[in-house]
Amino acid sequence: MTPDLDFLATALYVKTDDLLKASPHLAPWRPAVGITPKHTDAELVTLAVMQALLGFTSEAKWLRHARAHLRHLFPCLPQQPGYNKRLRKAAELLRRITRLLATDTSVWSDDVWIVDSTPVECGRSPKTVKRSELAGWAEYGYCASHSRFFWGLRLHLVCTLQGLPVAFALTGAKADERETLLDLLDAEPELVATRPGQTLIGDKNYFGRDFEHRLAEHGIRLLRPARKGEPERPGAELFKPLRQVIESVNETFKGQLDLERHHGRTPAGAVARVMQRILTLTTASRVAGGNLTLRLPQIRA
Fold first, then answer.
1. Which CATH superfamily is domain 109-262 in?
2. 271 phi/psi in degrees, rounded to 5
């Protein structure tokens, strides 16, 4: 462990512990009578973030590494089955902490957002598709960026120009990007209620007169490239450099945080592991003061 990682782990643990003391109802439910866990929910969250940061996709290998190298931070570590079960039940806690850390940064109030979606592959073999508990939610879809079909889910992400996640949703691979975005805004109207004149940058898939009218009702101005047959749209010269931001965030998810190697086999498992990576991205951005692209590679090194 480097001093940077020690600092990040300690800061995240303290922030999570303070949150749970102030709002104990956020912790996963457990019966009042029973065996008290030897490690706290704050320790569980910190372990999950450290696992993603250090690139361990196998929980068993991660816990072996933690026992050998992280005893100064985690005196008591769970066994792999217990860690897996508790992590699956902690998805809502991970989401709450993600939002708490995001709103505590200076870039949370950024008046420009970027939106996109990226595939989250969940299996390739026909046997996996038939037997997986994700069948019915996961489905076949097409990834235009890589010109390939895949079976799985799709992560829809709204982020700031600094790469800080603002809103996100995990859907089936065929879910309409525009409808998902509108559902995100309807689910959290406070996101835009205090941001008059918010600008949203998307790709050519975010089109349609009714769609733009719905966004305008939320006080959002949409910027996107012109589709074939359309006249040139305002801000076209800005799209190429700014679109690289969301591509960089997606590449961070996949290349550094192993989003497509999440190993989730059930809906709860897939949600928890995707949330684990979104929290990790937010945590790294929080420590870096919003400059994710500079910080995360240093931590992973």
1. Ribonuclease H-like superfamily/Ribonuclease H (3.30.420.10)
2. -60, -45
What is the C-alpha to C-alpha distance for residues 257 and 276, in angstroms, rounded to an integer? 10
For residue 148, what are its two tokens?
């390939």
How many residues in the chain? Answer: 301
pLDDT digits (tens, 9 = 90+) for 131-163: 889 988 999 999 887 788 999 999 999 999 888
Residue 148 β-bridge partners:
143
Contact 173, 140 (CB under 8 A): yes
* pLDDT band with cut points at 50, 70 and 90 for residue 292: very low
Give the start-to-end residue ranges of the domains of the chain.
Answer: 109-262
Cα–Cα dist 79/83, whole Å: 6
Give every CB contact of residue 127 below 8 A, 6+ residues apart in sequence. none
Percent of the chain topping pLDDT 70: 92
